[in-house]
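Hi R.,

Here's the chain you asked about this morning:
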Amino acid sequence: MKRTYAKNFQDKLKSYSAVAGTVIAAANTADAQIVYTDIIPDSTVTTDSAYYDLDLNNDGTFDFRFNLTLYPGGTSSSALPSFNKVGVTPLNSNLIAGSATGAYIYPLAMNAGDTVQASLTFNMGSSQSMGSYWGGTAPYGNWLGANNKYIGLKLDVSGNIYYGWARLDVTATGNAFTIKDYAYMNAVNQPIVAGATTSVGITENDLSGVTIYNDNRRVFIRLKNAVDGTISINNTLGQEVYAAKTEGLESEISLTDVRPGVYLVSIRSNNIKFTKKIIIN
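And here is the predicted structure, written out as tokens:
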């Protein structure tokens, strides 16, 4: 289990390296940083009416709901055919990048390196169709058969706008989806590159090549380079259960005394914050 987590995470980091440095610098963004959250293991939804609620900025409020609809179809000649749909709903005042045809909204399936920014068209509306599949005919949406594509997200926090992305796979028939990770730029109105996990001005002495994984109530952190930073672990209520300075290239943290649940492991150094979500059983 431990080795699988480490390998998967390193593979993801390698896949992002080509785009991680392409974030465009803008005025007054010296303190801007990408806050990245990895979902380990990836979350796959395969059952009717199941959903995944995404908290883009990890503040305890869900911002987007990804949901699955599976209808097997009827047997009579007048019955509706089978129907699968992967949908997404922006919650509160948040929006999703996409296009609209009449009452139907289709979120974009963006590529790594595309920029999520104000010039895109963002839409509100419930159950936007990432991919709809009607009995083998008339497929709709941009996401059917998508692998490692990115959805552009616009987050409204008390009138302040932040841009982010989430990475997903969707099956060709729309009968399942997998959400893998997500990130947002924590500077107001600043764009973010799809797939980028580090901010403008990163050097090799910052948080490149970081690995975080958990095994049997122990959290393991490995750094490629020594950094002067801090490690913190918080529950989903924002309560801190562990805090320390980084020491050396490897850290092992025991969480034997915490309650089972979801926790956020964060490493902060200079203007960079790297976060990963873990599950403690």
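One quick note: The chain has one helix and 21 strands.

Cheers,
M.
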